[in-house]
Every structure is written in C-alpha cells, then in structure tokens.
Design goal:
358 residues; alpha+beta; Immunoglobulin-like; 2 domains; seven-stranded mixed beta sheet; five-stranded mixed beta sheet; 14 strands; 34% helix; disordered N terminus
C-alpha cells in the first residue's frame, strides 16, 4: 500500500528514467562505426555531415517550438480549466505575426546561405574543399581515375599509370583523387559514405566526383540505385594506404599478365552477379576505353541479361541467405550459360593469375 501511495508523486521521475535511458541508447548508437555517415574520413564527407546536422537543426528550430506551443495551447486552454477569454472580434496581433513569420523567415535566409556554401564546397565538378589552398593536401597532384560500371561490377582505370582494377579501389592517403564516371549499361550511383557523397553514374554521359581520404583504412563503396538482380552484390572495397604503399601496389599491379582492351571489356561487361567479391587486376589498360564505352553506349550497344537470371538467383542463392551473410556464395547453374558468372569464369586471355576473392 505504501508503494501504491507513492506512485503518483514519483510518476514524473519514473517516466523520466526510461526517457533518459532511451536517449542514452540512441547516443551510444551514434558512436557505432557501422553508422558510416556519422564517421567521415575525408573533407567532402565531413562537409556533407555538417550540412546534414545544420539542416536537421534548422528544421527542429522551426518545428520544435511550433509543436511545443501547439501542445501547450491545447493543454492550457482545454475546456476543463475554464481559462481563456472568448474574443469574437479579435483578428490581428503584431507580436504573433512577427513570431510566426519573422522566425521562419530568418531560418530560411540563414539556411539558404549555408546551403549555398555547402553546395559550393561539395560540388562534384569542382569541390570547394578540394580547391587549391583549401587544405594542406590540395597542393598535391591528383590521382585521375576513370570509373565504368556494368551489370553488376565496377571497373577503375588509373589514367597515366597503365593499370586497371575491377571491384576494388586503392587510394593514397592525403592525396586528391578525381573521378570521371560513366555506365556501360544502366544508371547507378557511386557512393563511399565515409569519404564522399553519392553521385549518379549515367550511360552515355560523363559525371565527375572527387575526394581526399584523411585516414588509412578500408571503406565500403557500393551502388545505391536498384538496377537488377546483382544490385545487392555491386560493392567494392576502398583501401586507403600510405603513399609509399600505393606506389608499391601500382608497381606490383603493373606486372599482371592481364591486358584490358575493348574485346576483354566486352567479356567483362557480360551481366555478372559478383557474389564472391572477385577482383581482377589489369597491367595494361587502354586509356581510350572510357571514351569508347561512352560512345558505344550512345550508339545503343547493349549487354543483355539472360531472361531467367533473376528467378534462378532468387531460388538458388545460398538457400535464401542474405548477400551480407559471410556464407553467401552461390554456385553457377550448369543449365544456363552465365548464371552466377563471376569474373574468374570469363575467357580473358587465360585469366587465372592476379585475381583475388574476398
């Protein structure tokens, strides 16, 4: 009975405790390394996070007080209290007008100015945070990389270095990187959450992007547009290494026996569900391939998907395991050419060495 008698007086405290615990749980979740957007490792990703925080704060600055005042008015002037005066002739109040219109107007003006600054800072064509003098790393010569997407793989051609890598990106730390991107098939998006925001990759068009990585590590990159049965596996690891390690990797890649030309690319572009995360290194890359792929796409070159590829994959992929499951590794279907084809199955000039499966 004593406990029951005290319950009403402790009601506020008993409600506050779960609220505090819930807030603590949410904040602890923000510290998780899996929340990539909240852990930027480059100036572009950092600028995007700041824009997200400011946009959210500005929204709450308007919505929060409006919601609180509305709930307060409902509670304060509820019929049971008998408070409030009935004033049928009331029609205008300068303080209320200033509060309702002046506050949001100032928020919109401030948000507009900040949004312009962030748009210039993260402009894919010429990111302001990568401009000369914007940071200590921006004076270094950039790494230029051509990105070509297929169904459902990534091809990275390192211009001026004579190498290319499929489904893997290796970058030096504290070095500007410039991408130009196109698709040999359908539209998709290039996205490395901890390094740079997403950017459209369009067939028959060129889009640009840039980034600088501030921290050595491995970061997840992936496609963000649903574009067919291999979408869930259209991922690539971005390895950021020290400059000396990058130079050593380039030298080692240059010893690969695989050459990338138009004929090899056409084999590579065959619809492929790369569920084994296979990567391929090409020592000699045709640096004119990017322009040729874009031109071929404009001339309606296609790489047809086998008609029952989706159905076969849906029924046979790892007994319905999710693509993120470590055990998710499907086997080819002998009844259909190309089913589950991974790059190591392609007849690319005896392609057996210089492949990695992760």
């Amino acid at each position: 009975m004593t406990w029951l008698a005290r319950t009403p007086r402790r009601g506020g405290r008993s409600l506050a405790r779960p609220a505090v615990l819930s807030w603590a749980a949410l904040c602890s979740g923000c510290a998780s390394k899996d929340l990539w957007l909240l852990h930027p490792q480059g100036p572009l990703a950092d600028a995007s996070l700041r824009a997200l925080i400011v946009d959210t704060a500005a929204t709450l600055l308007v919505i929060g007080p409006a919601t609180i005042l509305t709930l307060w008015a409902i509670w304060r002037y509820r019929r049971a209290t008998g408070k409030g005066r009935y004033v049928p002739g009331w029609s205008h109040s300068v303080p209320i007008e200033l509060l309702c219109w002046g506050g949001p107007f100032l928020v919109v003006v401030g948000l507009g100015y900040f949004s312009l600054q962030m748009a210039l800072a993260t402009d894919p064509a010429a990111p302001g945070v990568m401009a000369e003098g914007a940071g200590p790393d921006n004076s270094k010569p950039p790494i230029n990389i051509d990105v070509i997407t297929t169904d459902w793989q990534w091809l990275f051609i390192y211009r001026g270095r004579g190498i290319a890598v499929a489904n893997k990106l290796v970058l030096p730390v504290h070095t500007p990187v410039r991408f130009r991107m196109t698709s040999a098939t359908v539209a998709t998006d290039f996205f490395i959450p901890q390094l740079v925001g997403q950017m459209d990759v369009m067939p028959g068009m060129v889009t640009g992007q840039g980034l600088i990585a501030n921290q050595v590590g491995t970061y997840e990159g992936f496609a963000t547009d649903f574009n067919g049965p291999g979408f869930a596996w259209m991922r690539f690891q971005t390895q950021v290494v020290l400059p000396d390690e990058f130079d050593a990797w380039v030298a080692a890649a240059g010893k690969s026996q695989q050459h990338l030309d138009d004929a090899v690319f056409r084999q590579f572009a065959t619809p492929t569900i790369n569920d084994s995360n296979t990567t391929i290194t090409f020592a000699v890359a045709d640096e004119g391939l990017f322009d040729k792929v874009m031109q071929d796409t404009m001339m309606s070159t296609t790489y047809p998907t086998p008609p029952n590829m989706t159905e076969k994959k849906a029924h046979k992929v790892n007994d319905s395991k999710q693509p993120t499951d470590p055990a998710a590794a499907s086997t080819p279907d002998p009844d259909r050419p190309g089913d589950g084809m991974s790059p190591h199955a392609m007849p690319m000039h005896g392609m057996s060495p210089n492949q990695e499966a992760h």
